[in-house]
Inverse folding.
């Protein structure tokens, strides 16, 4: 399971979450985004 996103312009990532989403789902998604951005920063 992952997160769909689209890059826009030079430094913007666009997310399109569902209109109905729980706090737990938002937290789950943010944890994944933080993890990926942390790995990208290391490289």
């Amino acid at each position: 399971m992952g997160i769909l996103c689209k890059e826009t312009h030079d430094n913007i990532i666009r997310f399109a979450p569902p209109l109905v989403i729980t706090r737990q789902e938002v937290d789950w998604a943010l944890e994944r985004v933080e993890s990926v951005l942390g790995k990208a920063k290391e490289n």
